[in-house]
Specification:
heterodimer, A: 540 residues, alpha/beta, 8-stranded mixed beta sheet, 8-stranded parallel barrel, 20 helices, 47% helix, B: 85 residues, alpha+beta, two-stranded antiparallel sheet, 3 helices, globular
Chain lengths: 540, 85
Amino acid sequence: MRELTGLGASEGAAVGPAFVHETRRSEVGRKIIPKTAVEAEIERFQRAVGEVRDDLAEAEGRLREAGDEERADILDFHLQMADDPELAAEVEERVRGLESPESAVLAVGDKYAEPLANSEDEYMAARADDVRDVIQRIAAAITGEGTAGLNAPQEPSVIVARNLAPSETAQLPRSMVLGFVTAEGSLTSHVSIMARSMGIPAVVGLGPDIEAALEARTVALDGDEGRVVADPDPETIAFFGNVRLQREEERAELDEYRHVEAHTRDGRRIEVAANLGSASEAEEALGWGAEGVGLFRTEFLFMERAQLPSEEEQYEAYSAVARAFGPRPVILRTLDVGGDKCLPGVDQPPEENPFLGWRGIRMSLEVPALFGPQLRAILRAAAHGNLKVMFPMVVDAGEFRAAKGMLDARREELEAEGVPTGPVEVGVMIETPAAALGAAELAREAAFFSIGTNDLVQYTLAADRGNEKLRRFQGADHPAVMELMRMTCEAGEERGIPVGVCGEAAGEPAMIPRLLALGVTELSMGAPSIPRAKKIISSL
Amino acid sequence: MVEREAIVGFEEGIHGRPASDLIKLAKQYNSQVRMINGKKEGNAKSPLQMVAFARKGDAIVVRADGEDAEEAVEALVRFVSAGEH
C-alpha cells in the first residue's frame, strides 16, 4: 500500500481495479522518401486525414446522440483541426521536399503545439494537448498503426495514465469509469474538465508518483483531497468506500438547498450570493443557487493588457453580468489594484509594501482616466439590471464622498449626452480597520456595507495573507476582527443599512453562525459553497 | 482585396468555442480570409492558427481576397465584434 498526493480535480471518492492506459506515441521510422514516391505519399497523408476525420465524426455523432454536447464539441474541434488547410499545405510542402509524411505531420504539429504548451495561461497550455492528440492520430493513420484510441476497460475501473489525450477521454464509456488518476494535468486540463462534467472523481498532476499507481492492481482516490492510494489494504478500501457514500449523501442533501431561499429558524431572511471574477462565471453561479453577486471583481478586465479597457468594453462586461442576474442584485467593486500588479498607462512607482500602498480607491481618485470610464460604464450598464457599486480600501467618509461625487458627476455628464443610465446604490467595502472604526460616520452616507474579511483580517492583525508562516493569523474569528465587524454591523443597524460579508469567512461553516449573530444579512462566497451555506443558515 | 478593423468582443477572446465558430463561418466563403493581430497573422479557416489568436479587446484586421471578399469581411467583423454566438 502506498499513499500518493496530486491535485483534486473532480470531487468524489472511488476505489476499484486499476486500468492502465499507455499513451500512444508514433515513432517515426523513416525520415525521407524517394523523389518518385512524392505523389503517392501525399495521397497517403490525405487518406490518413480522411480516416481520422471519419473516426472523429462517428464518435462525435455518438456523443451528440447521447446528449453529451460538451464532449462532442471537443471532438468537433479536433475534426476541424484534422481538416486544417494550413496543416495540409505545410505537410505537402515538406513531403515535396522529400520528408516522409509521418515525420512532416509531427513536425508541423509541434510547431503549433509548442507555443501553446509554453503559455503561462493554463487554458492555452491545455490546448497543446488537443493539437498533439490530433497530430498523433494522423501520424498513426499514415503508418497504419490505426486510429483506435484507448482500449475500453471491461469492468468498472479507475483509469490510470501518464496523460490522457482529450479524444481518448471523450470516448470512454461513462459506465466503465470509476475515476481518473494522471501524472500530468492541471485543474483546467481536459481530463479535469471532463471528469467534472461527467461527475467522476479525478486526481491529476501526480508527477513521478504515478509509477506506483501504474503498477497497482487496485487504486483508491479522493478527488476532494487530491489523495490516491495504490494497492490499498482492506481497511483503506472500506474507508474509501465509506467516504464515497458519505460524500454522495452529502451532495444529494446539499443539492436540495441549492435553489431555496435561506431563512434562519426564527425567520430571518439571509441572502446568499456569489463572488465572481468575470461575467463568464455568472451561469455557473446561478446553477449553484446564487441569489445575486455580493462581489464582482472588475480587475480581470484590466490585467495583462497593452491598454486600459475602453468604457465600451467595460460596459459590455458589466451589462452581461447585470443581464444574467436580472432583478437580483449585483455589487460591482471598482478597481482594486496596487503595486503588486501592473496597470498599462498608469505610472506606478515601485513600492515596498504594495498592500499598504497606492491602491484601490486611493489610486482611482487620482487617476481620472482610470476611474471615469469605469464609473460611466457602470452607470450605463445599470440600465440592464440591478447594479450596485462599492469602493475598495476606503479609510474615511471623506474618501467615500469624493468617490461618490465623481460618480454623480459622471451621471450628470451622461444625462447631458442623452445616454441612458440606471439607478445605482453606492456602498462601502469595510476592509480597513479605519473604515470599521469610522463605520458610524460612513453609515450616514453609504447605502450598504460589505465586509471584506480577507483584507480586514490581514490589516487588523498586521499579518500578510500570503505568508505561510502566518497561517494562524488568517482567521476572521480573532476577537479584534470580530469586534470591528460588530461595530460595523451596529453602525449599519442604527442607520438601517444592510451589512454583507464577502470574504472567505462568509462561506466557512464555523463562521456563518457568528456572522449572523452580529446582524449580517447577506453572505457572498465562492459559488460551490452556496448550497452548504444555505443549509447551515436553515439550521440556525 | 477588402480589409476592415474589429475589436474582439468575446469574453474568452478568439480561442475555444468562438474560434471554432469563426472557422466555420470563414469556410462559408470562397475568398481567402486572413486575420492580423499585431505581429500575428493567420488564415481564418485554419483552427491551428486561430486556436489562441486574440484576447478580448484586441484590435484585429480582417482581410479577404476573392469574389465574395466584401461579404466575408462584413460577416467576420460582425461576428468578431459581437461577442455573442
